[in-house]
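Handout, section B. The chain below has 91 residues.
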Amino acid sequence: MPRKNPPHPGRVVYEECIEPLDLTITEAAKGLGVTRNSLSRLINGHNGMSPEMALRLSKAFGGSAESWLRQQINYDLAQVQKKESQIRVAR
């Protein structure tokens, strides 16, 4: 069952992958083969997890690409559920 308020997946990347290895954002970005800006935007919650980034994270830090993407889906769904009462639809 999804958590009510899951963290942004970028926070998970930072706290569980980058920080324990004592990497800088620049070093992690280089290892992932992405720009520093791209990784920084993910970590700071400005961008979501893309399928390509999920695959890169899977190769670099383990876990499946699907599990990385699932974190983004859970986060996005939790965000929209916070404003569910404002969403009007007709059946």
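Note. Residues 34 and 53 are 9 Å apart (CA to CA). Compare this with the example in section A.
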